[in-house]
Structures are given as C-alpha cells and as structure tokens.
Automatic annotation (TrEMBL):
It is found in: Membrane; Plastid. It comes from Triticum turgidum subsp. durum. NCBIfam families: ATP_synt_6_or_A. The chain crosses the membrane at residues 74-94, 114-133, 170-192, 198-219. PROSITE patterns: ATPASE_A (PS00449). PANTHER family: ATP SYNTHASE SUBUNIT A, CHLOROPLASTIC. This is ATP synthase subunit a, chloroplastic.
Length: 227
C-alpha cells in the first residue's frame, strides 16, 4: 500500500483548507507576526466594526495624504502614534489625576511627562531617517547641501529642532490643560471645571492629530522624489 503518498496528499488537502478565508481581513505585519485588525467582519457592519473601520480609514487617509502612494508600510506606525497619544491625552482630560496625592510622584496623563513625549519624538526621528535611507541610500544625506552647501549647518539644525518642537509642543499643551483643570477643581469643584474638561478633550484630540500629521509629513519629506 502507498501509505506515505496518501498521507502527504491528506496533509496537503488539510493545508489547502486551512488557507480558505471567509470575508475580508485587514493584516498588519509587525516584525515576524501577522495581526488581524478585524475578526469575523460582517456584510452589514456592526457598530464596533464600523468604529474600527472608520479609525483605520482615517489613519490610512492621513498617511496617504502626507506620505504619498508609498504610505502603506507606515500606516501601523502612524496609527500607533495617533492612538497612543490620543488615549493618553484623554486619560488626563477626563480625570484630574493630579488631585490624587501619592507618597512619591504623581498621577497624570503619560503625555504629561517630558520623558514620554521626547521618546515619541525620537521614535519619529528614527522613522523618517530610516524612510529616507531605505529609499535613497547614502544619497539621502545630499539634502543637507541642497540647494547650496552654505545651508549645511541650518539643515543639520533642522533635524534637531523637529523632535524638540514635537516633544515640547505636546508636553506643554497637555501639562497646561491638566494644571488649569486641577486649579479649577480645587477652587470651584462643582460646575465650572466641566466645560474646561470638555475643551480639554477637544484640544487633546487635536494634539494627537497634529503629532501624527507632522510625523507622517516628516516621513513623506524624507522620501520626497520617490512617490
């Protein structure tokens, strides 16, 4: 009996069946792992599926607008930046953590810490350097002497000011918003702080959008000429 060939055919059949998919799935490649964005998508989307599809569409459009046609690989990075900052900002705008006293340190939104915002800005810097070098190779550094070598110091300084402006803009706005809410809660804890907290939710979302937009714009700028 040809047991081995039959077994191989059976295994191959099972392998082919395992590759069958029902519906459309969105995949992100993160390192060596594949992440599925939506499980069991429905023909008529549910509220949860609608929400996640809207968020994905928004981030994808933002990335495409700023980066260009080669935006695809950068959607996970821009999306992660936006969602992390958005959730962090809202956690501070919704709850005045600073009024809670701790023996050591304080409770606050993660983006209220300069270390967090600097880390996010440095990740952005690393991303746009990687994007430029991966597309242009060592010729990427020619941008520092264009349109004239006289601008070399200014062009180098620009790369240092980008992460500084990103980090301090986000840190300063979130810190100021939280301080205002804390002061109002301490003075008039019932009614007055509520409109300010709603305003904080709006500005927190805008700050997340600004950071993500600038990050995508810097990446697109470093890849300029290859769209």
């Amino acid at each position: 009996m040809n047991i081995i060939p039959c077994s191989i055919k059976t295994l191959k059949g099972l392998y082919d069946i395992s590759g069958v998919e029902v519906g459309q799935h969105f995949y992100w490649q993160i390192g060596g792992s594949v992440v599925i964005a939506v499980r069991n998508p429905q023909t008529i989307p549910t509220d949860g599926q609608n929400f996640f599809e809207y968020v994905l569409e928004f981030i994808r459009d933002l990335s495409k607008t700023q980066i260009g046609e080669e935006y695809g690989p950068w959607v996970p990075f821009i999306g992660t930046m936006f969602l992390f900052i958005f959730v962090s900002n809202w956690s501070g705008a919704l709850l005045p953590w600073k009024i809670i006293e701790l023996p050591h340190g304080e409770l606050a939104a993660p983006t209220n810490d300069i270390n967090t915002t600097v880390a996010l800005a440095l990740l952005t810097s690393a991303a746009y350097f990687y994007a430029g070098l991966s597309k242009k190779g060592l010729s990427y550094f020619e941008k520092y002497i264009k349109p004239t070598p006289i601008l070399l110091p200014i062009n180098i300084l620009e790369d240092f000011t980008k992460p500084l402006s990103l980090s301090f803009r986000l840190f300063g706005n979130i810190l100021a918003d939280e301080l205002v809410v804390v002061v109002l809660v301490s003075l008039v804890p019932l009614v007055i702080p509520i409109p300010v907290m709603f305003l904080g939710l709006f500005t927190s979302g805008i700050q997340a959008l600004i950071f993500a937009t600038l990050a995508a714009a810097y990446i697109g700028e470093s890849m300029e000429g290859h769209h």
